């Protein structure tokens, strides 16, 4: 089986993806990033529903995205990157997610890893890895585990062997690992501190298993990574726990959540646009409306208005969150990081609720014909429902309320 064939239907050990081609462009600034993102989105949008229906990994679309230079736009300027604002990154992710939310999600852990390198890597580590990112290398995730008390109670440990670290374990929900060039493995040291061990995708003992079986975001191929005596040089082990010290935190947690929220915003936008198109071309007005066109049905008009208002509110909060993250990155500290977390949590609440409502109401507004399997419109809802389960929004309400009511800062971990 090749990456361009079916994925997510078996337990096949997938061979590493080819290295990026020579000449991947380095994007210079925010305006260029937005222009290129719009063009990439235009190229990858066609066929998104069909790729989902066929269980086909979006290999070509992913290459278009990463080979465009967009995966390097948050690399700091002093390492050769554009260091675009997080507001701009949010816009880029939304554009890609509107075209294909699975392709957008494949980049989430990549950008989160770049943030970890900014906050926690040594200058030598950053120089080494950012040079690869600017050449088009992709990071893929090997973080979560099953059979543990909670998402942070990992079994995988770092074992020191001379100048290398040895890792053994099994990781699940490994978004991006199948198509990565470098796999970031989260493991704990003897003191329980978390580290990112960045392994070559073709490292001996590192096997990516094609067993992603969720009904949504099928194109992410977020399967299993098996680690059997995988060797990682110490020079590529990043002490990411340092980003979460209460006395000197960084904005890494807000950044990870911000990207997730941007994906949901893009998917909500796609669902609303799809509903509007089909209301004009496929839906019929209700018999009691007295109208000749579904687009003149007053309750349909009201429903679209409500969806747009809620989405636009979420987009405004995303921009606020991006600005707060930029401030926390440039001026790290307990208050700036907490502000970034709170702004991001508020955005994530609205984008989560918007995308679930929009992908659900699409069927109500268009009518029974929208359920035709040939249209595969349910892939939008399935993608939304699957992606929004990444972490519970009900806890976002809690940390926001506790912040404003009791001046309590959010917890410092990757999910808040």
CA-CA gap between termini: 38 Å
CATH homology superfamily name of the largest domain: Butyryl-CoA Dehydrogenase, subunit A, domain 3
Strand order of the largest sheet: 1-7-8-4-3
Radius of gyration: 21 Å
Percent helix = 40-55%
List low-pLDDT spans: 1-6
Shape: globular
Give me a quick take on this structure.
The protein has 416 residues and is α+β, with helices and mostly antiparallel strands. Helix content is 46%, strand content 12%.
Task: Describe the 3D structure.
- With 416 residues, this protein is α+β, with helices and mostly antiparallel strands.
- It folds into three domains: 30-138, Acyl-CoA dehydrogenase/oxidase, N-terminal domain (Butyryl-Coa Dehydrogenase, subunit A, domain 1, Orthogonal Bundle); 157-241, Butyryl-CoA Dehydrogenase, subunit A, domain 2 (Beta Barrel); 245-406, Butyryl-CoA Dehydrogenase, subunit A, domain 3 (Up-down Bundle), CATH 1.20.140.10.
- The chain is built from twelve helices and nine strands.
- The protein has a five-stranded antiparallel beta sheet with strand order 1-7-8-4-3, with no helix packed on it. The chain has a four-stranded mixed beta sheet with strand order 2-5-6-9, covered by helices on one side.
- Helix 10 (334-366) runs antiparallel to helix 11.
